[in-house]
Design a protein that fits this description.
The chain is extended and about 105 Å long. The termini are far apart. The protein has 4 domains: about 1-165, no CATH class; about 180-275, Helix Hairpins; about 285-405, NAD(P)-binding Rossmann-like Domain (Rossmann fold, 3-Layer(aba) Sandwich); about 410-515, Alpha-Beta Plaits (2-Layer Sandwich), CATH 3.30.70.1450. The chain has 23 helices and 10 strands. The protein has helices at about 1-15, 15-30, 40-60, 65-90, 95-105, 115-130, 130-140, 155-160, 160-165, 165-175, 180-205, 215-225, 240-285, 300-310, 320-330, 340-345, 350-355, 365-380, 395-400, 410-420, 425-435, 450-460, 505-515; strands spanning about 290-295, 315, 335, 355-360, 385-390, 405, 440-445, 470-475, 480-485, 495-500. By secondary structure, it is α/β, with parallel strands linked by helices. α18 (about 365-380) links the parallel β4 (about 355-360) and β5 (about 385-390).
Length: about 525
């Protein structure tokens, strides 16, 4: 009967929305570092911790008012008690444990095992209670029993609670934990050295009446101070044997410090890229609204420049580490992730509705852009998708993948091909320029309004004159292609210039054009 009521109550809790919402809210507030309101909770708890320590320190020499003592011993302790019990509550789902046990027993055609359910619940809760963080939380509550004066010193354990609320401290602990074996080995070596040196110095010095080391505790104190190269000078060996031991311990101490420093530096070096990545993700989450650009290329640089000019934020997703590094050197927000992977958007904590204005796909192939589009459409059906189209025959596939708008750079070449279709040799020249095997390439450069004078002056620059040819300018607004326009031609925002030259020369022309912008 008890088991039946318990199962019914577990199903009720599992389906009762106010209960589930309350528990989810408590979990997010305590454990979910990405929850927007958690930082305010953390700041409040940090403030209470510093207030507790301040009251403890001030109480040593000064009288504190009854109100402050009451606030410290009861109010703060009660808040920490509620926090501890709430963490215990959200650590595991007891109702789900009962339901799982009931369904398992029902499937196997056996009576519901109430004892097994309670055993699992107790094991999960005990796992939390015995965790180091939970033990610190429990010790921080001890000042609640302030009648026992010795327990007031447990206020200091509240300082250790800072590790829960300070992300940088948690990151430091995680970095050191990655070298746990090495640090434990070093600690064991240091402990053995301390034990041996303590006994040696005690044997060598304790029988000499002039020696300041007369007890084993004093020998232990001297060993610790010496091996960690502090050297207060309050205890100095007076016998030749004791001084010999001191020299050996000093050398060993330098080795211990050197090894410890090496281990910590190595741990930070190994985690440096991960730390930078986490920092970049945090920076991106604070941007607000931005354009998400998938893939980095020279075209990406131009697109980013135009968006920046319009005071828009841009985030680049690039899975190639070399390209990602180049984009970072160009001053962009770059995340080294695969834009076609569903896990990427969970790892970078991206919210399409709240953050992304539009997604721009500029990867090296239509296939990569299609995979990325399908992935994004699985996550969000409404975010605008814009893509470059490398091959016209893939247009339908990109449309089916959910891409709203696409641009094919080769279509501009098509305009020229139509104009000279009755000129076979010229047509072959255009075809050769479109080929990827030649050293000479035809490239498009996106232009800005007011760039006319600078653009035409740069064409006459000695570096480019007679080495670089401008075939014409495509006007995006009127969809008209002007062949070899004069220097008086008015360039509008979004117009595209068609340039023919060696690949390296085109890149230099592009860089100089944008570098000279006012």
């Amino acid at each position: 009967m008890v088991g039946r009521w318990l199962v019914a109550f577990a199903f009720f809790l599992h389906s009762y929305s106010p209960y589930r919402n309350t528990k989810n809210f408590a979990y997010n507030l305590l454990e979910n570092s990405h929850y927007p309101y958690k930082k305010y909770f953390d700041y409040g708890m940090i403030l209470l911790i510093f207030l507790s320590v301040y009251i403890l320190i001030r109480q040593v020499k000064y009288e504190m008012s009854i109100e402050w003592l009451f606030f410290n011993n009861y109010v703060i302790s009660f808040i920490f008690l509620i926090e501890y019990l709430t963490r215990l509550w959200v650590y595991s789902d007891s109702a789900q444990v009962v339901i799982d046990q009931y369904e398992s027993d029902l499937f196997l055609h056996r009576p519901f095992s109430l004892s097994q359910a309670f055993k699992t619940i107790f094991k999960q809760k005990l796992e939390f209670i015995l965790s180091p963080a939970a033990i610190i939380d429990l010790l921080a509550i001890m000042p609640f029993f302030h009648e026992l004066r010795i327990l007031r010193i447990f206020v200091l354990f509240r300082v250790l609670k800072l590790f829960r609320y300070a992300k940088s401290l948690r990151r430091l602990i995680s970095i050191l934990a990655s070298k746990k074996f090495e640090l434990l080995t070093l600690a064991l070596f240091a402990l053995i050295m301390i034990m041996i040196s303590s006994v040696l110095i005690y044997v060598m010095e304790a029988t000499n009446p002039k020696s300041p080391i007369n007890t084993l505790f004093e020998a232990l104190y001297w060993s610790v101070v010496t091996i960690f190269t502090v050297g207060y000078g309050d205890m100095v060996p007076v016998t030749p044997e004791g001084r010999m031991v001191a020299m050996i311990i000093i050398i060993s101490g330098i080795a211990v410090i050197s090894f410890a420093t090496s281990i910590i530096v190595t741990a930070f070096t190994e985690k440096l890229d991960e730390i930078k990545e986490e920092k970049m993700i945090d920076d991106v989450s604070k941007l607000g609204r931005f354009y998400l650009v998938c893939g980095y290329s020279p075209l990406t640089n131009e697109v980013v420049h135009r968006l920046r000019k319009a005071s828009k934020h841009i985030v680049v997703l690039e899975k190639d580490p070399i390209k990602a590094k180049q984009a970072q050197n160009d001053g962009m927000y770059v995340l080294n992730f695969d834009s076609a992977s569903l896990h990427t958007y969970g790892d970078i904590r991206l919210h399409f509705e709240r953050q992304v204005i539009a997604v721009i796909l500029l990867q090296d192939s239509d296939v990569a852009n299609i995979y990325t589009a399908l992935t994004i459409r699985e996550l969000n059906k409404k975010v605008p998708l814009h893509s470059i189209l490398h091959k016209p025959e893939n247009r339908k596939k990109l449309l089916m993948a959910g891409i709203d708008e696409m641009v094919n750079p080769q279509e501009l070449v098509g305009f020229m091909s139509k104009k000279i279709s009755n000129q076979p040799i010229a047509f072959e020249v255009i075809h050769a320029l479109r080929s990827e095997h030649g050293g000479t390439v035809i490239e498009e450069i996106i232009l800005d309004s007011g760039m006319s004078k600078r653009f035409f002056e740069l064409l006459l620059h000695p570096l480019f004159h007679q080495r670089l040819s401008m075939l014409g300018i495509y006007q995006r607004e009127t969809q008209f292609f002007a062949f070899n326009p004069s220097s008086s031609f008015a360039i509008a925002a979004g117009d595209i210039a068609i340039i023919v030259a060696k690949r390296s020369l085109v890149g230099e022309f592009r860089n100089l054009l944008h570098r000279n912008k006012v």
